[in-house]
Amino acid sequence: MNSFRVGGTTFGGSTFGGGVSLPGLGKASTSTGINVPKVGSVSANAGIDVSKGLSGITGGIELKKDNGNVFTSGASKKSAEDVSHQAISSYFIGPQAENLTYFKENVNVILDRLKDARVNYFPEDGEFIDDGIQISETFQKRTKDVAKSVDKLSELLGAHSIPFWSPRYQAHMCMDMNMPALLGYFATMIYNPNNVAFEASPLSTVAEVEVGQQLCEMLGYKASGEDQKQDEPVGWSHITCDGTVANLESIWVARNLKYYPLSIRKALDGPLDFISETFTVRTARNEEKLYKHLSTWELLNLRPQTILDIPDRLNRDYNISSKFLEDIMNEYGIQSRGKESLDRDFGIEKPAQYLLSNTKHYSWPKGGGEHHFEIRKPLFRLVHHFPDITTAIAGIGSDNMVGVTVDNGARVDVSELEKHLEERLSNEQPVYAVVAIIGSTEEGAVDPLGQILAQRRRFQARGLSYVVHADAAWGGYFASMLPRDFIPGSRFSDNLPVGLGSASGFVPDSPLRVETQEDIWWMRQADSITVDPHKAGYIPYPAGSLSYRDGRMRYLITWTSPYLSQGSTTSIGIYGLEGSKPGASAVSTYMANQCIGLNPEGYGALLGEATFSSSRISAQWAAMTDSSMPFVVVPFNMLPSELASDATPESIEAEKQWIRDNILRSSNLDIVSSSSTSPGGDSALSLLRKLGSDLNINAFAINFRNRDGTLNTDTLEANYLMRRVVERFSVDSPSDDPTKIPLYLTSTEFSPELYGACAENFKKRLGLAGGGQDLFVLRNVVMSPFPTERDFVSELAGIFMNVVAEEVKVCQMRNEVTKGLHEFVVHGADDVFLVHKPSFHVANHRRQTILGVDMPADIKDLYCTLKTQFPEELWTFSTTEEVDLSEVINGSAHMVGYLKSKMTGPMLPSFQLQAKHTWVDRPLTGPSLSIEYPTTRMPFYLYGSDISSLDSPSQQLYMDHALLCSPNIQLSASIASLSFPSSPKRSATDRPLVLFLDDVREGTMQPFPTSNATLASLPNFFFAKDKEYSISIWQDPVGGSQDGEEIWRAWEGLGKGGSEEGLVGRGKAVLGEDVWVDSEQLNFDPYKPVDNTAAWKKEFSKIGSA
C-alpha cells in the first residue's frame, strides 16, 4: 500500500517505500520494495546441511537432509530385557499406538458393563427406543450425520492436535496420558458423577477420599487410620480442578487461620466471657499466657497447631459444643465480619503478607486479588487474568505478595528471605505464609524447603509464626522416587545396577540429586501442599489437588467448626472453592495411583527414566556447541566447572569436551557402568545428575556469532533468534501443521525485575551486554519414559542445530550493516531537513536520523515552487544508489536520489545531496532502547533553522517523535506556530532541545496499531494538522547519549519536584501542513512469516451440524 492522506495527515505506506537492501537477499524488485525468500514454517528437511561440522558433537550420528523427520530410534527388541521398562511400557498407548489393542479391549469392557448397568436397572420398564424408531428415516439420517461428524472431528484432531504422546514433544508439562487414568476417566465420565455431593457421586466421592489418602502417604503426611503417634496430625487431601485453584484455596486457609485467634479474642468479651479468666494458650515463643492478655501481635503469631487445637480444647475443657462455637464464628469470624472489620477492631495497620520466590506461578498474584504484580511473558503464555472473584476469596492485595530474589539456579535465596522475615519481625508486620516452590514451572527449580522450615522454627522461637506452603504442582509426584528408607543425610547415590539389558534400548532409572531428594522429603513438614496429578501423574485434565498436614485446616474455609473429628465421606464437596466438580477426575487419579503405584517401583521408576532422559538431553545443551560453530547454546543451570571457585574458560571447555567424549557418544549402559572420571572427578552418571535442573525441565538460551565471528551482544537480537527458533519448534498459529514439526520446545522470559542477578549472570554467560531487557529463554520438559539411546537424542539434537543454523543466517543478515537504499521525509524550504524512515528490523535502517542538507540550486528552486503551490503535499527523498548512512553522516559520502510526492511521482533525474549538519543520529539497537515508554508526556526532537531563538516570527521549526522503545510510531511534523506566555530562555546552540507534549501521555497509547490504515480510521487521532498542544521545551540533559535507559530516566526526571533546571519555556504549539505518521515500515519485519488461518477454519467448519 502506498502512502495516503487523511485530514491533513500523511500516513506512510505499508512497507519500505524507498526500498531496503537486505544483504544477501537481492535488490528490491517488487512493489513492496523488499525481496526476501519465503520464511514460513520449514521442516527439518529444509535449509542448511551442517552435518559435517556437527557430527562429532552429536555423538557421531550423520545428519542428513532426508532423515530429519524420520523416527529411527524406537525401542530395540532387547528393551524387553529391561524388566522395569516392561512395566512402564504397559502404562501407555504408546508413541506409535503399540498398545492400542489392549486399550480397545478395556474400552469394550467398560461399554459392556455400561450396557449391563442400564439393562439391569428395572428391566421390567421395557425399551423406550424400539426397532421402529431406530429404522425410521429421521433416526437413521441423524445417526449418520453424527457418525460423519465424529469421523471428521477425529480426523481433524489427529491432524491438528499436538503430538504430546511422542518423545519428540518436549515443550509443556504434557505427555501421553497413562491408560489406567484414561480408562478410569472414560468409564466414570459416562456416568457423569458430580463430586459436589455424595448423593450425586457415591462411588467417585469414595474414590476422591481414597486419592486423598494416597497423596498423603506419598507426601509423608499421616493418613487416616495409620497407626502412629496420637499427637501427630492426620493429613487430608482432595482433588481440585488444577494447581491454581489449589493455591488459591491455600491462601484462603492461611488468611482465615491468621485471623481465627482474633475472632476468639472478640468472643471472649462476648459469649465466651465465662472462660476469659481461665483460658490460656502458649504463644509462638512457648510462653503460657491468659488468652485475653495476649497482644494483637501475639494473637497474629500463634503457631498453626495451637490455633487448630483451640476448638478441641474448648470442647474438652469447657464442654463447649460444636453448634455453640459455630454460632460464635458466624458472628465473629472473618468469614462473616470480613478482614477489614477485624483489622479495624485490633488496630492492624500493617497488613499481613505472603513471601515467595520471584519465580512464582501465575496463580499467586491472582490469589492476592489486585493486579499490581507483573507476570512473566513467555512467547506462548498460559494467560490468566486477575478476576474480581480473587479479591472476594482473599482480598489481601497482590502488593502483599512479596517476591524474594532467587539465586543463580532460580531457587529462592534463603538469605534474602531471612532479611525479609527479620524486617517483618522488627516492624511487627505479620506473615501469612512462606511458599516454597517444589519444581518451578519455568526452570524446574526446587526451593530449599528444609532450610525454610528450619528458618520458621527459629523465627517462631522469637515470636514470628506463619504457615509454610509447598507449591509442588510439578514436583509432588517426584516424591514417589524417594527410596523407602530415605531420610535427610542419607546418600542414595551409588551407580545403578547393570545387567538390566543390552546397551541398545536400555533406559536406566536415575535418582534425583541428593539436595533435591532432601527438600522433597521435607514436604512432610509443610502445612499444605499443592500437587497436580495432571502434570507428573500423566493424568487427564482437570486434576489438581491440595493436601493439608493437619486435616482440620480444611474446616477454616467452611462455616463448620474445626474441631469436628474427620467429617464424613458425604461432605467432601463442601471443602474448597469449587462447586460442581467431575467425579471422573477423582476416579482417573485413583486408577493411575492404584495401578502404577506411588512408590519407587511404580511412579518412581517412571519418573526415574524420564529423569535420566532429561539428564541426557541436558548434556546436549551443555556441550552441543564449541567455538567453531556460528552459535552458542548455554544451559541455564551452570556446569560443575562453572560453579568451581577456580573456574576458567579452559577448565569449562575441558569439561564440555569430556561430556562430548564420554556422554554424548556413549550408550546408556556405558554411562551407567563407566569408571572414567571427568576433570572435576565425576563419573559419567554422577556428572549427568549434576547437569540440568532439579526436576526434568531444561532451560537454555542461544546466541549467534556475527559474520566476523564475534558474539552478538544485543539481548534483543538474541531474543529475536530464539523466538524464530521456538516458532519453528511449536505451533503458534492454526495454519501450522503439527505433524510436520520434528521437535517441540517452548519458551519463557527472564525479567531482570524478577530474576535480578540471576538473569544478568545468564546474559553474561551468553556473551550479552547487561541492561534492563528481558531475556528470552528456551526450555524443554522431559516426561517421556521411552528409550533415549544416543541415536535418538542425537538425532533430535541434530534437528535442533540444523534449524538454529538456518535462523542464525537470518539474524546475521538482519544485523549486518552494509550499503543500502534509504528514504527520507523532507521538511523545510529555505533550510532543507531530511528525516530518515527507520526500521527496528533491518540493520541498515536501525537508526533515528535527522539531517540538514545542501540541495542543488535548480532542484531546490523547483521544490520550493511546488511546495508553495501545493502546501498540503508531503515530500520524500529516495536514494537510487546504495549508500552507507554512517558515511553520509560523517561527510565521507553523499547520497544520490530523487524527490517525490504523491502528486508528482518521482522527479527525475536523480541528483546529489550532501549532509551539512546532523541534528539527530541515534541507533535503534537493543542497548539504545528503553524497556519502558515515556509515562506522563510524549517526547520529540526539536530542530529547525535557528533553534536558539524560539520566538522569532520567521522561525521554521519541526519535531520528530523520539523512538525510545520498540515497537513504536514515527510522528514527524512542521510546527505552524509556537507561542509562549513569557519569552523563552535562549538555549545554548550546542545543546539539543527536547519538546514534550505535556498533555499527551505516551505510555497510555503504546503500543500503537501497526497498521497505518487502522491509525487513519481512528476518528480523533491525536497527531494531525492544526492540532494544538500544551508543550514544554528543555535542553537535553543527556544529549548525545546512546543508552536508552539513561535517556528515559533523564527525560522522565525533567521538571520533577517543580525543578525548572534546563527548561527553555512552556507554551502552545500548533502542527503545520507537513505531518507524517507511520507505524508500518518502522515495525515491519521482512523476515516474519505470514500466517493464513482461513484454510484451517474452513476445514473445521466441515464438522456437521443439525
UniProtKB/TrEMBL annotation:
SUPFAM superfamilies: PLP-dependent transferases (SSF53383). Its cofactor is pyridoxal 5'-phosphate. This is Pyridoxal phosphate-dependent decarboxylase. Coiled coil: none annotated. It comes from the Eukaryota. It comes from Macrophomina phaseolina (strain MS6) (Charcoal rot fungus). The keyword Lyase applies. Keywords: Lyase, Pyridoxal phosphate. The keyword Lyase applies.
